[in-house]
Amino acid sequence: MGSSMEEKVVAVIMVGGPTKGTRFRPLSLNIPKPLFPIAGQPMVHHPISACKRIPNLAQIYLVGFYEEREFALYVSAISNELKVPVRYLREDKPHGSAGGLYHFRNLIMEDDPSHIFLLNCDVCCSFPLPEMLEAHRKYGGIGTLLVIKVSPESANQFGELVADPDTNELLHYTEKPETFVSDLVNCGVYVFTPDIFTAIRDVSSQRKDTAILRRVSSFEALQPATRIPADFVRLDQDILSPLAGKKQLYTYETLDFWEQIKSPGMSLRCSELYLSQFRLTSPQVLASGDGTKTAIVIGDVYIHHSAKIHPTAKIGPNVSISANARVGPGVRLISCIILDDVEIMENAVVTNAIVGWKSSIGRWSRAEGVYNSKLGVTILGDSVAVEDEVVVTSSIVLPNKTLNVSVQDEIIL
Amino acid sequence: MKALILVGGFGTRLRPLTLSLPKPLVDFANKPMILHQIEALKAVGVDEVVLTVNYQAEVMLNFLKDVEAKLEIKITCSRETEPMGTAGPLALARDKLVDGSGEPFFVLNSDVISEYPFKEMIEFHKAHGGEASIMVTKVDEPSKYGVVVMEETTGKVEKFVEKPKLYVGNKINAGIYLLNPSVVDKIELRPTSIEKETFPKIAAAQGLYAMVLPGFWMDIGQPRDYITGLRLYLDSLRKKCPAKLTTGPDIVGNVLVDETAKIGEGCLIGPDVAIGPGCVVESGVRLSRCTVMPGARIKKHACVSSSIIGWHSTVGQWARIENMTILGEDVHVRDEIYSNGGVVLPHKEIKSNILMPGIVM
To answer: Superkingdom of this entry's organism (chain B) (predicted)?
Structure first.
């Protein structure tokens, strides 16, 4: 017969906060990381649109430490556009990844949802949420994690887990282990039943009552012992690890792409992944052109309708151009993100770079990033001016600077 | 009497400090940079100060409201919508500067610290009767700057030479002017350079005179000069008003400690140190040639030299911070860490040594 049509679903997206996000500088100096554009849309827009595909979605909550006013405009615009209520909730103090969810449990349970999705905003993936929900219903546990196989060398940057190949039950979970446990990792996308709140509450009260012997890494053991407050509950160490193997948690494996958007360089890579996803799901969003009336477009490219591109320019692959940008004659753009109001003058070249709001790239100048170099992709902050014929290679330039000499592998404050 | 302070731009050379506050509000010798200038102007009878800003004007105005009340001086902002150079702002602020009284007005560059001998400058200006007076200061390497070529006895300026290849003189523009209102008529409302366009015109008409600045001078727009500037400032304070300096068994040389700061036992502080309001310096700490911004904490046994510790930052126990390390706001250096010239942006934790000068974002 299938699921009850009355069962509502609520989605919670964790967006983080300002002081924690220093890895996203200098772009995060001007805009909260969740609002940084990836493939032409704010980062948080991608999980939000994915949530729209969940049947009976009642509400989306964004939970973070940013000031309310930083999200006010975005939240009201997106609620209107997608016709689903989106609300930003500010955490007053850190509660941990699970504690944050618990802190707002009353609001979350207001719609009496049967299921609650928890997503991390800086995850880049195909978000197979309806499929996860269906699988979760079949498993009958209190939670299901989205998981993916990664290369064994990179696995220890994430939460490694072991799943039963037949039942998909989560058998073992460990966060950033020192030795190899498994090449299956936690994607940071979960679906829970409301029993999760009981599980979190139990952790809190247990911590209050007894001293818990927990296995710590050798590094942690040498640190001065700090008392963790009772209401600080981490999803990985405090919920997933202890509940693994107890027939409560299950896994759903995705075979699509998955990345974490931790650094500005990754935002360029993830932009590429989302642009290629648009090619499949909504190709009308992407730009095209053959150099006759409009510029030549190669591969997956997003161009905002207000941007002006000269017909002799050649754009792509993997380029996102935001509102009111101007691209002059003979410009070549490859693998880059061009933000609002940027001006790129004649015959300039931008490749593997992010060009910040209102910046200008002079004639015959070149902004180039090299992925594996010390600083990686070139990032120009807000209102940076690169003068004619200057070359900027693998460098990071903070806002309001003018470059009149070429630079390489440098951070310009 | 009126004064114009050219505040201008983004203060990028003083990053990471200017990522937290606009440059004029960054503390120098335990006082916001611009307050040094405003107080000196008030002392010679200036009753209105106009600041020309093109960045973060609201932050400036909020701070200045308190100053207005405390000092009983009027402070207004003149907003540049585009950078107006070094003379354009005067034309922009014309209505505020030219009030029909005919009195000359001061123009100061906000990055400059000195003894601000404004009274002497007013007398000099009246004596020569010319249209404009400019302070000049002697430097060792004049070719790095714009040199003012002048008659030694009268101070009458002949010309300006920008970065001269051959020696023409050793006096450069100190960024302090006293101008008659008629000067504003000579400035068009567009980005203009006072040295390249306005002053040469006045000099050609024999109306520009230069006075050699007595005492010290420093442009503290970048960290190295900020630290040197503090040494010069404290040196001057020792000569003029030694009671303001801090003394004690743990103090050596010129040291300025705010009365709300706490210093532990067995420390050795100085020379050339400024410790701001609310700072805590625990026992056994060695500080030399450094500035500790308000609210910062230096933990036991640490050693800090030739560096700037940003607002509310902490330096861990036994940490060693030296060689132009600049910690931005809310930076926390763990115990036993060594920083050799690290430049650290705000809200960071330093968990590993910085062995070579570099930027931590």
So the answer is: Eukaryota
Listed residue (B128, B137, B82, B141) closest to B109, CA to CA:
B137
CA-wise closest residue to B321 among B336, B335, B303: B303
**Is the CB of A25 less than 8 angstroms away from the CB of B345?**
yes
Give percent of chain B with pLDDT exceeding 70: 100
* Cβ within 8 Å of residue B229, ≥6 positions away: B28, B113, B218, B220
d(CA A164, CA A172): 9
Q: Which residue has the tokens 């009284």?
A: B101
- Contact indicator for B130, B154 with CB cutoff of 8 Å: no
* Angle of the A96-103 helix axis to the A195-209 helix axis, nearest 10: 120
- Find the CB nearest A401 among B12, B16, B19: B12
Q: Name the residue among B17, B296, B349 with its Cα closest to residue A23.
A: B349
User: Cα separation of B26 and B310, whole Å?
Assistant: 10
Nearest C-alpha of chain A: how many angstroms from B361? 7
Q: What is the ipTM of this complex?
A: 0.74
Q: What is the mean pLDDT of chain A?
A: 89
Contact flag A396-B361 (C-beta cutoff 8 Å):
yes
Comparing C-alpha atoms, which of B93, B88, B106 is closest to residue B187? Answer: B88
Residue A380, chain B, CB below 8 Å: the answer is no
B16 near A CB under 8 A: yes
CB atoms within 10 A of CB A374: 10
All residues of chain A having their beta carbon less than 8 Å from the beta carbon of residue B330 are 19
A18 and B330 within 8 Å at the Cβ level: the answer is no
Helix and strand numbers (H, E) in chain A are: 9, 31
A148-183 residue pLDDT tens: 999 888 887 888 899 998 999 999 998 888 788 788
> Which residue's structure tokens are 């731009």?
B9
Instruction: Supply the DSSP string of A117-164, one letter for each residue.
Output: EEEETTEEE---HHHHHHHHHHHTSSEEEEEEE--TTTGGGSEEEEE-
User: Looking at residues A114-130, what average pLDDT do you find?
Assistant: 95
- When the pLDDT of each residue in chain B is averaged and rounded to a whole number, the result is 91
What tokens appear for B303 in the block? 């050693």
Do the Cβ atoms of A286 and A275 come closer than 8 Å? yes
- Residue-wise pLDDT for A319-361, tens only, equals 999 999 999 999 999 999 999 999 999 999 999 999 999 999 9
